[in-house]
Amino acid sequence: MFPFPKSVFLTHGVGVHRHALTAFEYALRDADIEQQNLVSVSSILPPYCELISRAAGVATLRPGEITFCVMARSETNEAGRRIAAGIGLARPKDPAHYGYISEHHAFGMTEAEMRDYVEDLAATMLASTLGVEFNPDAAWDERKRVYQMSDLIVDSLSITAFAEGASNRDWTCAVAAAVFRFEAPTSNDATGAP
């Protein structure tokens, strides 16, 4: 049985290369997670899992280790085509309750659209789990206010990677990830800022 992650950090990156796999590798390098054996998991933020900064999280990584993450990945070799990958995170006020992580990848979305979309997904999943009453057809800004006023959700946030396909038709890859860590953060830089 695997232990529960003690912390999570958000990261993102973009890579470009004539080979799709190498563009992915470059995107992982840009995100500082290229030396890991990444295992994608689904969308639950475990209870008592602390959000730490990217710098604090990357400092705990060891090359070659199995590293669990929620990842979004988008790639294209079409010149000028917009790609985006995003991660949304919603944390409950009660740290003993689990939260949600959403991932999404798309063509044609702007960075702002992706950011709002993944944050909305995570917050809405958490709000529905916590029994917060809301109008699912209301605009995201309106629902976000309802969630915040419920006093059940501490916050929601997102991180995105956005790019346009290279003009020479090389592969362009965008990745965003929530990376789980099993060690408690040792740095004072555990601010949670991506």
Helix and strand arrangement:
Elements lengths: L6 E11 L2 H11 L6 E4 L3 E2 L4 E2 L2 H5 L7 E11 L5 E11 L6 E9 L3 H20 L9 H10 L3 E12 L6 E11 L13
Parallel strand pairs: 1-4, 2-5
Antiparallel strand pairs: 1-9, 3-7, 5-9, 6-7, 6-8
Helix pairs in contact: 3-4
Give an overview in words.
The protein is α+β, with helices and mostly antiparallel strands and 194 residues long. It has one domain (7-181): Pyruvoyl-Dependent Histidine Decarboxylase, subunit B (Pyruvoyl-Dependent Histidine Decarboxylase, Chain B). It is built from four helices and nine strands. It has helices at residues 20-30, 54-58, 111-130, 140-149, and strands at residues 7-17, 37-40, 44-45, 50-51, 66-76, 82-92, 99-107, 153-164, 171-181. Helix 3 (111-130) crosses helix 4. 43% of the residues are buried.
